[in-house]
């Protein structure tokens, strides 16, 4: 009897502890659904990297960066091609979330699509958005440090001049960037002036440029450093 009484006293003293642990466990178990493509809190971007199978090369090194303004930048390196050279492709555009998929609309006729496997893994889908039936790995993984993928990129968009500065509204992202010329070329302004009928009017142009990243911004809307101004394309527009 004395043993039973001692046990009851022990349990009565421990009951508050058990209740506290139970409540803490319940609180820890209640979690809000995560934003599966939430950007890095410090920079506003997420970067994924993976080495994917490649039919025409040894391996495809794919880097994908998603910006919190709905734009993306993509870099593909096709290593070990049959000619012994690596081929690099860079693309940019807009991305959207569709359930547990992300859809990238860039320069290709077909959007590039990925499915979320986990908080740190995306899996490449086929052109129709279906699973790739293969025993090979088509996953890319979240990196600890974002890669802003500055380029260079071959881009088309609407060029204009305002207040002594040149601006470029890139077609695929829809964003406007201030242009900085790596090698100043006064002939660009002269050609622009000859093409427009009113100040600040837009003229389509093609150029090769890289992003100049500001330390205080991860939005992807930075300046563009023009490495080569290719040409004006009078009469062109960003309309599909």
From TrEMBL:
Gene3D superfamilies: 2.40.128.640, 2.40.50.540. InterPro entries: Cu-R_lipoprotein_NlpE, NlpE_C, NlpE_C_sf. Coiled coil: none annotated. It comes from the Bacteria. Transmembrane segments: none annotated. It holds the Pfam family NlpE. Residues 155-238 form the NlpE C-terminal OB domain. This is NlpE C-terminal OB domain-containing protein. The lineage of its organism: Bacteria, Pseudomonadati, Chlorobiota, Chlorobiia, Chlorobiales.
